[in-house]
Amino acid sequence: MASLTTFTDEAVIALDTLAGRAANLVAPSLRLGVTGLSRAGKTVFISAFVHNLIHGGRLPMFEAQKSGRLARAYLEEQPDDAVPRFQYEDHVAALLDSRTWPESTRAISELRLTIDYESASAWGRMLSRGRISIDIVDYPGEWLLDLPLLGKDFAAFSADSFQLAALPVRADLAADWTALAATVDPDGDADEMTARRLAEAFTAYLRACRQDSRALSTLPPGRFLMPGDLEGSPALTFTPLPKLREGRARPGSLRAMMERRFEAYKTHVVKPFFREHVARLDRQIVLIDVMQAMNAGPAALADLERALTEILGCFRPGSGGLLSNLLSRRIDRILIAATKADQIHHTSHDRLQAIVRRLTERAAARADVSGAAVDVLALAAVRATREGTVTQRREELPVIIGTPLAGETIGGETFDGDTETAVFPGDLPTSPDALFDAGALAGQTRAIRFVRFRPPRLERSADGVTLSLPHIRLDRALQFLIGDRLS
Question: Using the 8-state DSSP alphabet, how is residue 36 labeled?
Fold first, then answer.
């Protein structure tokens, strides 16, 4: 990403990093980025992350807790006053009280969790007071997919957008937008209403791509789907244009208007997001909803791999020397986690993890994240199901048991959100490559089908104390992301 920033950008990043390093000498901290595409479970992950540490959750693979070295974890005021606070209390209340999933991430937010601990070594106990603050930065993955735009001009952005729109999985969804775009003359006079109609049609196409039936992931510009306070602004009223001629745009033309707004979007929206947030991260977890992509088919999985490649290419991985580390932060650990592992039986978790590894290895090779430790994991930050077996035609099937969300359908039955049921979601293939092959999937005897469940009723101990949120492998995620900083 260094080649996509100016000297001024790098100077601002260096000054901010130097100030942060100085502050760390007094109060050690680590900035953890949490991102993922729509409905991957970012809000749930952060809520469970914090809840289990504060309430002493069952985390057997988290070494600091397993060895009894965690004294306490508690929330403090976040250091960035201009960034909205992650509303942890509201999200936990939704999970525990109403058993509803929290609202999805729609903008950036932050939360500071401070951990008091005892170092594992006598030398460490002499040099450190055993306290670290984890600044958790929550941001939409759709915004991250905007960062590659910094290396493109308007013509390249337009060409790439129309190339994607022509793919078989997208062509019908893009038909209205591409038909409208074909009627305009890029070299004709700029017209605000034409620009507005084009932008609205383009946005409708992107939103249609995100629906469950397609579950596509590569959908820049991200603010078109999550505009926030920019909705209706000129910075979001632009669209790719087809068949652009070589050379500069005619002043006053529609193309000139679109180019200007595209550059404004990069300057006033994308660059500040990278400079003020992404460039300040130390660690990163990327959450992906592989289940939904598998429901939608091979094209959705291929698009998820494309998006993952672009996301990994946005980070500054690795570690530098002493001087460079004083002036520039590097992400030295990246975890790619498939969420909602509770939607399948544990006997399929290894296969799910193999699918994630297949996606990640190719994406990481293309994005070149050498220098950073990259790991993959299948997890459920909040486990909504339990496991069992049922006998069907003298065959024992491993099933998951839970309460499907209202409106979910299984075998023609639509659920009301209150009825518990046992579900056999299907067998994951032994080879991950089969999922990317439509012909191979068509030959399966059992279709793969995953449904969404309500959060669980939280267990209580014998003396009536509410226990921490149940999970699958959240402890392994904690160990990889922050475990070494508590050694």
Answer: E
- Residue 473: how many other CB atoms lie within 10 Å: 19
Whether the per-residue pLDDT at 444 is higher than 60: the answer is no
Q: Kindly provide the residue ranges of all beta strands, DSSP E only, lying in 15-107, ordered along the sequence.
A: 29-36, 70-76
Nearest to 49 by CA among 131, 108, 134, 109: 134
Least confident of 59-63, 218-222, 448-452: 448-452
Least confident of 58-62, 248-252, 292-296: 292-296
pTM for this predicted structure: 0.88
- If one counts every other C-beta atom within 10 angstroms of the C-beta of residue 433, the result is 10
pLDDT given at position 1: 47
Residues paired with residue 29 on neighbouring β-strands, in sequence order = 133
pLDDT bucket at 126, cuts 50 / 70 / 90: low
Please state, in angstroms and rounded to a whole number, the distance separating the CA atoms of residues 299 and 210: 13
Q: Partners of 116 in the beta sheet?
A: 72, 131
Report CA 428 to chain centroid distance, whole Å.
23
Q: Which helix (H) or strand (E) holds 322?
A: helix 322-327
Angle made by CA atoms 96, 84, 24, in degrees to the nearest 5: 100
* 221 preceded by a cis bond (ω within 30 of 0): yes
Q: Which long-range contacts (CB under 8 A, 24 or more apart) does 75-82 make?
A: 75/50, 75/111, 75/112, 75/113, 75/114, 76/112, 76/113, 76/114, 76/133, 77/112, 78/110, 78/111, 78/112, 78/135, 79/29, 79/112, 79/135, 80/110, 80/135
Rounded to 10 deg, the angle between the 474-482 and 42-54 helix axes is 80
Task: For residue 362, count other CB atoms closer than 10 A to its CB.
Answer: 13
Is pLDDT above 50 for 479? yes
Q: Name the pLDDT band for 184 (thresholds 50, 70, 90).
A: very high
Nearest to 408, CA basis, from 451, 455, 456, 454 = 451
Residues 438/351, Cβ–Cβ less than 8 Å: no
**DSSP tally for the chain: helices H, then strands E:** 17, 12
| C-alpha–C-alpha distance, residues 238 and 197, integer Å | 10
Helix 168-182, helix 192-210: angle, nearest 10? 170
Return d(Cα 209, Cα 300) in angstroms, integer.
10
Contact (CB, 8 A) for 223 and 236: yes
Q: What are phi and psi of 162, to 5 degrees?
A: -70, -30
